[in-house]
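Morning!

As promised:
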Amino acid sequence: MSLIVQKFGGTSVADVEKIRAAARKAIRAQKQGHRVVMVVSAMGKNTDLLLKLAGDVSQSPPAREMDMLLSTGEQVSVALVAMAIDDLGSKAVSLTGGQIGMKTDDSFSKARIQSISTERIERLLDDGNIVVAAGFQGIDDDLNITTLGRGGSDTTAVALASVLGASACEIYTDVDGVYTTDPRLLPEARRVDVISYDEMLELASLGAGVMHNRSIEFAKKFNVPIHVRSSFSDAEGTMIVAETESKTAPVCGAAMTPNEARVTVLGVPDVPGKSLQVFSAIAEKKIAVDMVVQNVGRKGRADISFTVRQDDLKLTLAALDKVLPAIGADAVTFDDQVSKVSVVGVNMADQTNVASTMFRALADANVNIQMITTSEIKISTLVPRAEAGAALRAVHEVFRLHEKPADAKSWDQIRAERGETADLDTLVSRLQDDALEALTLTGISLTKHQARVTLYGVPDEPGIAADMFETIGQAKIFVDMIVQGYDGEDGSTSVSFTVDESDLKQSLEVAVAIREKHGMRDIQDGSDIAKITVSGIGLRSHTHVATVLFKQLADLGINIEMIGTSELQVNAVISATNSDKALERLSAAFAASLEAGR
Ligand code: ASP
Ligand code: MG
């Protein structure tokens, strides 16, 4: 008999009527012949209320007590849902995180799942019960209650679906699926029928707000299909499945993160280990750094720019202030009036074209791009906040995201084509050994024979990036990574891109033409470079990846010239000298994670 997991978010159990409606959905699924496990969040805004209560009692509530408190929200709702099912004449048993054997590490408020024991759930299901499990919570080795972080019930649900070998994980929520962009920001946003794990991961981390990021990591690792749908209707929503099954357009979605801040550390001595110093000072404060652009050094100095959330700006500046003398950098500048606009798509094969199309759309909307970073499935731009809305609209429009792609696969097609994951059991039993949510790497590789072109003194005005990459695209040069960052020297920007070594000569010719046309200061190229790529699942939620990378490279005296990160890969462009050594060192440093992804 097939098993399904149904997760109900806070809004879906916000009051008595909604609790009964949720109960009816589960009963109906059971009557249709499924074994049913429900995962339930705290009712409505209860978690927020509990947080506020804690804040009123104490200025800094101990993390352990915070988790003890917050976990009660889910305990209330599972009991009520089980009662509702009983009242409707079916059998149900509610269970806390501890009772489902949800074992986590002991990082309160952001605990990671290590293992789940399934026997008790299986036994209750065998007896004809609907099992109602509390989302968001677990226990550590000492039986302390832990929580997984805000929105963590999604992760509970997908994790349970994984270890129970569920045929699907249904996420019932107050929206009816995943949209091409946030419909509150852009009314023409379109609900998509199907999206891939990779795209969803990227959109979720860009603030799409629909699903907890770590839940998608689980789904991808264990190949669990997710169905995001409205709890207030029976309409089908969005199915999140593997990339091979989804077949989406080159660009599947756009996202805007409004409240970003740019920070630039000017005049960082261009010697290995300096970026490590900058970023470990920030990591120590648990601040997430997003777009990172290190300008290629000149006169022995480089500028490092990155973005953080606007809320984290103060703390970031304070952390930098402390280490600036030790680093020997000149100064720090910032801009707290910026937003990030990105496009995502796993089928961005012709990235030069996608990039220039995006830049042209922004130019036509008179939006000035301040920073650019790219990864294999994403292009992100930093723009003035006042122009961010127009930017999102322009990008959504140019990729025709409001229109359903003609060759989109249907739901039924995907269902029919979907095979069983042959070795799911082995995978689960291997990772059940305390490693369910560990970083799993699928590979670390080196691409040699790369070359870089950097243009300095790029005027900071709309249209330049568009012109540049259109010209490069017309020359049929395939560009891999693109970064644009602040150029401390005169407040203009610098743009770097990488190409295959064999395309360098032609790229330089194009660059010279562009420099002439726009009156740029200087061109530089580097040819003895390589790209090192770390691929896997959980690269961004496990924040130590970048630090380990920086550390290993610094130890070898290797400078990082460019860096691009996504949910799936971290790419660093380094000099080819010593790059084999770097590969070796990184493979050793990440041995356990590579083993987990084997
Ligand atoms: N109740 C928790 C929260 O509000 C967990 C969840 O809803 O997923 O964050
Ligand atoms: Mg929630």
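The chain has 19 helices and 24 strands.

Hope this helps with the figure draft.
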